[in-house]
Write a structure and sequence with these properties.
The protein has 98 residues and is an alpha+beta fold. The chain has helices at 7-19, 35-44, and strands spanning 23-25, 50-55, 63-70, 74-82, 87-95. It contains two helices and five strands, in the order H-E-H-E-E-E-E. The protein has a five-stranded mixed β-sheet. Helix 1 crosses helix 2. The protein is globular and about 30 Å long.
Length: 98
C-alpha cells in the first residue's frame, strides 16, 4: 500500500479510483459537479493543483486533500479515501467562489 500522506501518491490513487468508478459524493447543500465531469476534471489534475492536506472536521481524523484545478474554470476538490482506501469520497467538488 502506498503512503497516502504524500500528495503525489494520493493524486495517483485518486486518478486510479476515479477511472475505475470507485467514488462517491458526500451529501451537501451545495451541488457537486456531475460524476462524468468529475472524471474529466480529475483526469487533468496534476501535483501543481495541490492546495493542502488536513484532517476531516467530522471527528474521524481521516486525512483530507484539497486540490484546486485551473483549466479555465477553477474547481475546489476536497476528498478522502474510505473503505480501506478502495473508494474516494468527495467532500466538496464545485466551482470555486474566489
Amino acid at each position: 500500500m502506498s503512503d497516502l500522506n504524500n500528495p503525489e501518491n494520493a493524486l495517483a490513487k485518486l486518478k486510479t479510483l476515479v477511472r475505475e468508478g470507485s467514488f462517491e459524493f458526500a451529501p451537501r447543500n451545495k451541488l457537486h459537479v456531475t460524476s462524468k465531469l468529475a472524471q474529466v476534471i480529475v483526469d487533468t489534475l496534476s501535483i501543481d493543483d495541490f492546495d493542502s492536506i488536513g484532517f476531516d472536521y467530522n471527528g474521524t481524523g481521516d486525512l483530507v486533500f484539497v486540490f484546486i484545478s485551473d483549466d479555465g474554470i477553477r474547481y475546489y476538490i476536497k476528498f478522502k479515501f474510505i473503505n480501506s482506501e478502495m473508494t474516494v469520497k468527495f467532500i466538496s467538488f464545485h466551482e470555486t467562489e474566489f
